[in-house]
Write a structure and sequence with these properties.
Blueprint (H helix, E strand, L loop, with lengths): L1 H10 L7 E3 L10 H13 L3 E3 L2 H8 L3 H37 L2 H11 L1 H12 L1
Parallel strand pairs: 1-2
């Protein structure tokens, strides 16, 4: 969940120029005038402020638990999408390797993988 928040900050200029993590505002050592200016920038939309869970819960009148659950759901979906991309990449590499291999190299590959494993895959495809 923290990775999702960190990535959100990075996409929105997490280097401090365009996005402010609300957790760190009190630790920045700003004068009251600087805090007022930063708050005005946030209200005007000139600066993106990433609220804490508690601040978001208050602003949207929902429990922090529900927000946390939503963040976990989104993180799981992002991880599943990443796994799907990795799977597609692996499939494409296998296809490229198979098509680029000689008949003898294919024979060696099937022996190494195991004839039973290869037949199991063929049986699932043929039905």
């Amino acid at each position: 969940m923290q990775n999702l928040i960190k990535e959100s900050l990075a996409r929105n200029g997490g280097n401090g120029s365009a996005a402010i993590n609300a957790r760190g505002i009190s630790h920045r050592g700003w004068t009251p005038e600087q805090r007022a200016a930063a708050a005005a920038d946030a209200v005007l939309g000139a600066t993106h402020v990433v609220p804490t869970l508690g601040q978001a819960a208050t602003a949207f009148n929902v429990s922090a638990t529900k927000i946390r659950a939503e963040l976990k759901t989104r993180e799981a979906a992002a991880e599943a999408a990443e796994r799907a991309i990795d799977e597609d990449y692996a499939v494409n590499r296998l296809i490229d390797a198979w098509l680029g291999a000689s008949p003898k190299a294919r024979e060696v590959a099937v022996r190494e993988i195991g004839v039973a494993a290869a037949w199991d895959v063929i049986a699932r495809i043929v039905g």
